User: What shape does this take?
Amino acid sequence: MMTNPTGRLTQGQFSFLPDLTDAEINLQIEYGLRRGYAWSVEYTDDPHPRNTFWEMFGMPMFDLRDAAGVMLELRNCRQTFPHHYIRLVAFDSTRGIESITMSFIVNRPPSEPGFGLQRQEGPGRTLRYTLTPYATTRPEGERY
Amino acid sequence: MGAPDYSIPGSVAPRPAFEAVSDAAPLSVAGAARTVAAVLAESQVEAVLDELERDLVGLAPVKQRIRDIAALLVIDKLRMNLGLQAETPSLHMSFTGNPGTGKTTVALRMAEILHRLGYVRKGHLVAVTRDDLVGQYIGHTAPKTREVLKKAMGGVLFIDEAYYLYRPENERDYGQEAIEILLQVMENQRDDLVVILAGYKDRMDTFFKSNPGLSSRIAHHLDFPDYTVDELQQIARRMLAQRHYHFGAGADAVFRDYLERRIRQPHFANARSVRNALDRARLRQASRLFAERERELGQDDLTTLLPVDLLASRVFADTQP
Ligand SMILES: Nc1ncnc2c1ncn2[C@@H]1O[C@H](COP(=O)(O)OP(=O)(O)O)[C@@H](O)[C@H]1O
Ligand SMILES: [Mg+2]
Assistant: This one.
């Protein structure tokens, strides 16, 4: 399978592109702020695709006017968790929408070993698949 | 970080488009303004300066200082365009003066001026006091201060009565923590926000004396003088006109008398006292009109403040039977 030959985690927006530079991240944040979204910073070291709830790094940031505020938190998070996955998440609080509208990875571990696929044979010709990140064999905080 | 070792079609070409946002300023900006007139025309900053001149009564020294600062910023802009100056000048300020002398009002205009000249990106003003920055328990202050700073980024952070941040009598006061975070951002993120500290002149002076780090990062000190009675009266007339009111026969003189008495009383707060006095006069006018149920009220009745509306004030209490 050659859709993602480097084993890079592909979740959220832009994840098939090379990593965004800080200037590019800045532009995305500005775009979200212009549309009234509240940004938040989240991190994890469990890259499993079903792990949808990452840890929050501080509260979601409401009432910001400029991307510099979000970048400040992002820098703090990178300093605290240099080898974790970090993503920026935009929340649209408009009544009736009230959901995540943007999300993209802004920090990755230096190496991403990827996932192991286990096949479990069931009755008949049934096959059950289990995806295991190689990194999660070690305990939290020691994975990357 | 692990960049992919394959290339994505089109991923190379668009890169330069983002370069314009990068922090590294080019040595000399091609096609950038070379004359004062060009900067003024580009920024439309004169409109704000004129508005300031027109809308605010008195404050001559403050207005002059703001013109000087604007001139400095325009020249700095030209210097930057020629590559003579790379980093943005420190723009943090202190506004000192008694309550109601227009510090908050001028700070709003200042934010607009800085925005038009491109020294802050968004130009909004976030006004806070100690309670917005300092927490109640250990570990509470840093996130609180940071939250405020984040909201102010791209604009101006206005800290009213800034000296309350420093309480030397309490050794473990959390205010010190807020000051330190503030200092860091004031020094390292000059492009991201401008801080204005405001308060009474004497208390501010002692505050700066005991916090030299803060004091040395303030580039401009503006002192707001008290208003004269004439100026206060002019302010009153403008406030009334804005709300479609005016003084009726004799009320002008009564209000002057009121001001002269009020100034000598405690808690006099310049233009703010004027605003409050007028608000109370409007209340009395409303009660006066309300009492006359059957009377048809024309425009004149509804817009005129009479001497009785002012004379009922307790400032006149000692002259009344
Ligand atoms: N020079 C002035 N001309 C007109 N109105 C003024 C002037 N100075 C202050 N005011 C009015 O007085 C009120 C109090 O001013 P403010 O800026 O809040 O004072 P401070 O922040 O110094 O306490 C505001 O409503 C403002 O509009
Ligand atoms: Mg004020």
